[in-house]
Design brief:
14 helices; single chain; seven-stranded mixed β-sheet; Rossmann fold; alpha/beta; three-stranded antiparallel β-sheet; binds S-adenosylmethionine; about 375 residues
């Protein structure tokens, strides 16, 4: 195991998550069949590629280019089983209305708009998120607002729980139309608002909800803006809650230690929120098939090289041009992100007016790909 970690470190010097533990987790994932984009671990894309290369050149990786999957050629003998068993796996739920949920997932599958930072979570994550919220009694009987909802979590909560009122605010009319159709078909009475969150929420939505739920773009500006809009929607004078998602691993461009520290300080000190519940390794996004194809093509091309050094050089070069798709950015972690539950007694949004130039100067762009593009331009 150490040999594999050392070999990978020879290529990727600065990934703090390239550890024995993470490599073990990766092997655990590779015991099954997975797409490269489907791998969820804390290591950077480059490190994952280095590890896959290592296994490939040792003859330990089988590749199915038709199905775009990779997996181990033989079973691993676990000598540190207890460590690996620490990994938290998604629970399999049995629930009513399973067919309508499948219908929802089909309807949701409409192709993502990169410019809106869309990337729906996978089915298992959707279930875990619902179960997490339900376990805190934040769904049944509650008035809920979804600040952006390409996941269709609003529909999932309405199908599987019994919320009193559900409102979705999003910029993307396609998605709102899909939610309205499902709402009508299953009698869910979900209300939709087409709205750009750079502007404050419409007056009638402010101060009206028990719970907000958001999976914002994964950068400081994006999280602060979406959470602020959620906070502005919360009722006053009673205890309310909010859910947001953030990366809890170091990412040099988007989520450094200092960025996370600043984010949490602002949420706690300025917005008056308290963290009361986190679901580890909780969110995994769906990788669009064309992106999985690109990753597999890149991997197969690299494995034509005669040895691991040449393989890695190729991967590094090929990954350099940053794609808008975040999982392709070599410095972006492949780790699932953390669902975080906030509790408020006296909610106060940090950003109250427009997200204007002044706000952007303070907290940065609201979209992570803008940060990545700015960085790429600087490097040129
Ligand atoms: C921001 S995406 C989150 C995807 C994933 N967490 C990520 O970072 O890649 C969540 C939802 O927000 C919506 N959205 C993005 N920008 C918006 C804006 N300015 N106003 C309203 N909704 C927006 C998207 O359409 C999408 O449905």
């Amino acid at each position: 195991m150490n040999e594999m970690v050392e070999a990978c470190k020879a290529f990727v010097a600065d990934d703090p998550n390239l550890t024995v533990y993470e490599v073990l987790r990766l092997l655990r994932i590779l015991e099954g069949e997975t797409t490269i984009g489907g791998i969820a671990c804390k290591m950077e894309v480059l490190s994952v590629m280095a590890a896959l290369g290592f296994l490939y050149y040792k003859g330990m990786l089988k590749v199915n280019s038709e199905r775009l999957t990779v997996g181990l050629t033989s079973k691993v003998e676990w000598d540190v089983k207890s460590l690996v068993e620490l990994e938290i796996r998604g629970t399999v739920y049995s629930f009513p209305r399973a067919e309508s949920l499948e219908d929802t997932l089909r309807k949701r599958d409409m192709g993502i708009i990169y410019e809106f930072s869309q990337l729906p979570i996978n089915r298992d994550s959707l279930m875990r998120k619902f179960a997490f919220m339900q376990s805190f009694q934040d769904v049944d009987g509650k008035e809920m607002i979804f600040i952006g909802d390409d996941d269709f979590l609003s529909v999932t909560c309405s199908l599987l729980g019994r919320p009193r009122r559900v409102v979705v605010v999003d910029l993307d009319e396609r998605l709102l139309e899909g939610i309205r159709e499902l709402s009508e078909k299953y009698g869910l009475e979900i209300e939709t608002y087409k709205h750009n969150l750079v502007h404050p929420l419409p007056e009638e939505l402010q101060g009206s909800f028990d719970t907000f739920c958001t999976d914002s773009p994964h950068c400081l500006g994006g999280i602060l803006l979406f959470v602020s809009r959620g906070v502005s929607a919360l009722k006053r004078g009673i205890e309310t809650t909010g859910y947001f998602v953030f990366q809890t691993v170091n990412e040099p461009l988007l989520m450094t230690f200092e960025t996370r520290q600043r984010l949490l300080k602002l949420i706690i000190n300025d917005m008056n929120g308290v963290i009361q519940g986190m679901l580890p390794a909780s969110i995994k996004y769906t990788t669009p098939r064309n992106e999985d194809e690109k990753l597999m093509a890149l991997f197969l091309e690299a494995t034509r090289r005669p040895n691991l050094e040449e393989y890695y050089k190729h991967v590094e070069e090929a990954l350099k041009p940053s794609s808008k798709f975040i999982e392709f950015y070599p410095k972006f972690s492949m780790e699932a992100s953390m669902i975080t539950r906030l509790v408020f007694k006296d909610p106060k949004p940090l950003i109250e007016g427009e997200y204007d130039k002044k706000a952007e100067e303070k907290y940065g762009p609201i979209y992570s790909w803008t940060i990545i593009e700015q960085h790429a331009a600087k490097e040129k």
